[in-house]
Amino acid sequence: MKKIIKTIIIGIGIASMLSCSDFLEQTSPSEVTATTVFNSTAYTEQALNKVYSGLTLDHTYGCRIPLNFATNSDIELIDGLDKDGTGNSVAINERGACNYNPSSSWTKLDNNWTECFQIVENANIVIEGIEGSSLITEGNSSREQMLRYEGEALTIRAMVYYDMIKNYGDIPMKFETTKSDGSNIYLPKTDRDTIMEYLITDLEKAIDYLPWAGESSYTTEHATKGFAHGLLARIALSYAGYSIREESKSSLGYETLANSDETYPTQRPGSDKRKELYELALTHLDAVIASGVHLLNPDVENEWYLINQCTLDQTYRENLFEVAHGLNFSGEMGYTVGVRLTGTTTTYGYSNSSGKVKLTAPFFWSFDHNDIRRDLTCATYEIKPGSSNEPIETMQSNAPFGIYVAKWDPRKMSDDWVTASKAATTKFGYGINWVAMRYSDILLMYAEALNELNGADVAGPTCGLTAKDALLQVRSRAFDSSNQTEVKSYVNSLTSGDDFFNAIVNERAWELAGEAIRKYDLIRWGLLETKIAQSKEDYLELIGEAPSKFYYKMQTSDVNAIDMSSICWYQVPDEIDSYKSTTGWGGENPTTGTNIAYLPYISWGLDRTVKNRHLLPIGATTISDSNGTLTNSYGFE
Amino acid sequence: MHRMSKKMKNMRMVLFMLSAAISLNLSAQSITLTGKVKDKTGEGVIGASVLEKGTNNGTITDMEGQFTLKISGNKPLTISYIGMKSQEINIKGKTKIDIVLEDDAQALDEVVVIGYGSVSKKDLTGSVASVSAKQLESIPVSSAAEALQGKMAGVQITTAEGSPDAEIKIRVRGGGSLSQDNSPLYIVDGFPVTSISDIAPTDIQTVDVLKDASSTAIYGARGANGVIIITTKSGKQGKTQVNFGASFGFRKVVKEIGVLNPYEYAMYQYELDQSGTYYGSYDDLEIYKSVKGTDYQDEIFGRTGNQQSYNLSVSGGAQTTKYSISYARNDEKSIMKGSGYSKNNINAKINTEINNWLALDFNARLIYQKIDGLSGGADNESSAVNSLVAQSITYRPISMLTEDTEDDENTTNAQYTPLERLDATYKKQTKFQQSYNAGLNWTPFKRWKFRSEFGYGWKYDNTDQVWGYQATSNSKFGYAGLPQAYISKVNNKNWRNANTLTYDNNKLFNGRDKLNIMIGQELSSSQSTKTYLTSVNFDAEATINEILAALGNGTALPTTTYIGIKDNLLSFFGRANYTFKDKYLFTATMRADGSSKFTSNNRWGYFPSAAFAWRLFDEPFMQNTKEWLSNLKFRLSYGAAGNNRIPDGSMYSTFSVAGTGDKSIYFDDAAATVLAHGDVLSNPDLKWEVTIARNAGLDFGFWNNKLSGSLDFYWNTTKDLLMKTTIASASGYSYQYKNMGQTSNKGIELQLDAVLIDKKNYGLNINFNASYNRGNIDKLNGSSYWQSSKWGGSAAAGLQDFLVEEGGRLGEVYGYKTDGFYTANDFTFNESAGTYTLKDGIVSSSSLTGGNLYPGSIKLKADENGNINKVRLGNTVAPISGGFGINGRIKNFDFTAFFNYSLGNKIVNGSKLGSSFYSLSSKGWNLNDNFTLAKRYSWIDPTNGTNLLSSSSIKTLGSEYVTSRLNEINTNATMWNPAGSTVMPLIDWAVEDGSFLRVNNVTIGYTIPKSLVSKLQMQNIRIYLTGYNLYCFTKYSGADPEVDSSTSTPMTPGIDYSAYPKSRSFVGGINVTF
Question: Which of A360, A597, B34, B911 has its CA 20 to 30 A from that of B8?
């Protein structure tokens, strides 16, 4: 009996000994650890792809950041007008938010916050992973590649962080991976300027690591040196500019904008700091220009055609960075912004696009009559299905706040898009890349910074351009060769300082309308309120000047297409009978007109409770999940 | 391992005697005695032992209870049968006798399975609830869980939805965990399984539920939430027995949600938009009175379902080998269009005694099932608001004159009717499961038994889904609304090996004491592999069959595979039972578990327990109570059990290739390969969650056990809760598993059985059970956490409606009290501007209800300071639940009625709330019938259709007229106007009392008289008719009070929104034994 017991016990013992050590250590063959990932360039690239893939979501760069959060400005606004302040302008959706009446219970705020911080965390993982990798030791053949990956992660993280600061102001600062012990999970807000300092340092490092576009088979769908330079400059200018503050920073030498809120003043850094930041911006903008890697596409129409075609411009590389959306998968460029399709047509298929981002008539009116960009930017028409569903371009009847952004246009979109759209039965990803930065932005920022520091006629440090040269490059592209003399004299007539600055303010509107830039420009310039108010006055002025009817013709080659050149915007034509007509902006009654009633409620939340409250609140769920470390400021609940 | 049935045990004994009898036949016998052993109802007792006292001469009774035995005639006969009182009879020359055996009233020698062994009920120290085959066999049910509903005190079984594959929630004593699965451990024939819903109820011999630590601790790691042990039927020695059963039934939806009729609906639409664009001008709306409209609830759930089931079992065996094999098939056509299932079960068992010290048993279970159709509201990849069930209530009954093309959130999904979407949706789940278990019993010496078990299980679970273009909003893949197909294949393989050594001595100190010691060791391992195939972009008009037939016609997305982490467990355990003087019972157990889910520092958990029981009844001082008392036992236990139910690999951060449902980055317009981590932050410090269970109980019997039962008090404390906590989103993660907090459950359970009448031709029994459980959150890091049920998607999200806090309970629901609605008198009308504003001093609810305030907007109650506060509206977890049953027989008729109940909980009626505000009942969406024109506030003048609130009305009609007219037309209004609030917080109106008493089932059966049956060469024929879910007594206004449709988090129980409706059914059937 003893023997048997012994045998059994020994048996059990052996079975357990054999199993104990390995039996309880289990991993999935389908999963790899961080150590494995970051000691392989292939895996590291895939982990970096995760950082990028966060950019294609609806709540990040698919729609929210570029299309919903970036309005209203003086020239752009959200659709859905409100004539008594009880509807769209206060709605708990993007319409309320764009009219500066956002509510923390708009859940898309939480979605955006969460998804942005996921990108940040994924970037943190890649950055820390690479820094701890054995592949970056000096002399390792993969070192350069790994550092390029790190540069990309640093740049994307900076872009996302900056875009969050733009929209929420002060936010938690988290440039390390989340620790499982919870020590850095519940972070309070950090002053945005501190974060921007950090981003600038990061980008300087990234610039060292990154190749220029075109080198090492990098396209502008990846972060490259040029974009890192440009982004750094953009952040520096923003840092130097105004924004509403959690509390006054006057004691630190900050300057307060006139007519700002007492509790939440709108302030910018003092002149010394500003100078430093402008110089910093200038250095980096100058580097991009001097590199010659990025140029303006001489044909501005072609620049946008290529974007609509989903064709990367590898010749001029005017776009410094694009978020690579995929057809059928992601991206609302062309859908939420762009020439509107109001129903299924034989040519464009399903495509009931929304065209939610709109431009204003005063903006249209502000263009030089010969500016090519006017019709390339403003679509005063939409495409409707005819009786047999053929697409008919239909002029808008007095919709001064309903002009679509013509930069995205189904008529320019690719055959693949048309095929997809014809097959589609519901909304689908348009696949058009979001262009985060164009070279014209670089030139105009350069001109702005240089004018601020040295005036409009002094050449920059290495590229040799003066501020006027830079402005001229942008503006001259927008005009036919026959109008170049006028363009030159316009630029030359500008004097350094305010005069030139105002020209930059205008040029940036004409050049960059609809590209999620204007609102943030106005904020940093401290011009958001005044320019929005101005645009409403401009409208009242406009209805006194504009014809009450617009006369136009359809094309002879295509009776369903408007002959854009035939539209009589500024006067009534002589042979009125050969024209079709529609109600023009001049038809509005200045006291009882429908559009007049809308005016007070456009952007009406900006000064409603707190002056110049241009930021979004933090979402309610985000706050409740923060264990009390986050609260809303600026009077938001 | 296996419960030894009374008969089996008996047979073993008889086996020996039989062989002895054969040998004794050689000696000369003088008398041939024939006789019949009957029970007091006159039925023959099969397998009773008949033994000539003091000899080995004996036999057992046959199927009729008859026996023949040659005896010497001078010794008395002993007739015995387990569960009945033995009798001694003097033959005195008789050659024919009839014996009536009395039931042994104590019946305490029933054997209960307690994990790695069994114990007679008499010697049990723990709290165990049991249901026997006898209780199950009279009523046909489609699942084991359904059969158990309400039958056992402290075991709460909830069927949350009516769908064929609805998950049945089983909770033993409340469950300790807050955020985790609280389901008990299921053991079928010794084999741990994930669900018992696929076991054929006809195969079940017994169900034992281990409730306290004395019995669960032996399952250590996994026993914290109770253990449900199912033993399937085994073969018996004797003539081959064939059982056949068949049943057929119908089912029909019980209750639909009331909605507005087409005319009322059109009137509401007019209220939203007076342009007449969608349903015509006001004067024309009358025509909708004659329009029937489409009742989508009826279209989708209105059909009469049916069910049929067949089972066949063959069992039998010789002395050394017994077998049982059964086949069961169930088919159901469910009430939802396109939904139903079929299920095939095979269960085979064989055991054989190789010699008198070695025995082998083998058991195979095979289950094959197919489930068609959607599983109701939860079956939606996007949100419950979008689900067919939710929309079948709110979808417009009549189509618009002009279909809207405006782009707004959700409108793209609304373009197809729920019926179109249903028809365009295909879902088929195919599951095949096989498990094999072999055991070797070795008795090397007297009183020693070594048992080694090896089990192997393999299953696959395939789901084929196709979404036609009308249904793509149900799919998680975007892709331009073109048809999509998704095939998932999940494979699981698992094995276990358990070795136990038992020493059993019931003759200690000359039979005064008994000792049973068991030690053992167990290894188990389980691993899943998953494969997902996705194909999108099929031609819009492609039919489901075409898509299934040629997946290649679509665009294939990368195939995703995942090889899971092995979930391994290594355990050592031991148990000692000591019975002192047959009155004092002691049990001690110890188990150590090592789990692969924790890092090496926290891997091992130790779970001890101790229990004591005192058979008071057998004390000498209780002698004089014997008149009325027939049993009294006191039980006490204390012990620990663990829980490691967290996903594998929660302690390490790892990366894997992202699935096709996630967006990628499209460099050069092609999806890049993405290596991603999950949204759950790892935590290497995770350790075992431990439940300390304390139990005190009393088993009692009165009047010869005519009334018997048990009463238990328990107090369970769960420490180091494994919680899936929501963490700040700035971390880049949504959740983290943490050991955090402590909960406790205290409760009382009462189980009563009464034999009211027990005569030959009629009898009546009742049984009753009740349990009271109160949970408490003892510790929670000193803080409270708001939870959002998000019952209605984004329109109601962001509004935190459940509070989990220290000192509180699970299911605390918070919201706002309603205070009627605003009236015209609350507003100042500005005639020149045509506007109206709330008067000063009147509190505005608009920050919570969104948008603008109108006369007729819902008004939330404010306190004296004018603040609208969120207040507690109740608790959604029922403290009291149970059931009771009556069964009786009159001659050959039998009947049973069974009721179950639940008391004291609230339900959030999301179906009602979901169509009571603008966001979910805007243009094109219908309202529930709480908002008929007669009930709701309206701003339309019924005489001419004027919107009194329009600015032109105010300008032209004037303030005074508008106010008085609004007051006039709304004199009888009792409800707010849903159009007056954009969003809706949770309000007291939607939080209803969820108490109920359900007539769960009623059965009438008829057993064909034996005389008739035996002519057909059969043993037994019974026919029956059963009605299920016949009636539910409740104040709850929704479809059914037994509901829990929030699946996103267990922290927000008791939500009723878009649940698959329940049905009522009638089933008739026949059972035949050959």
Answer: B34
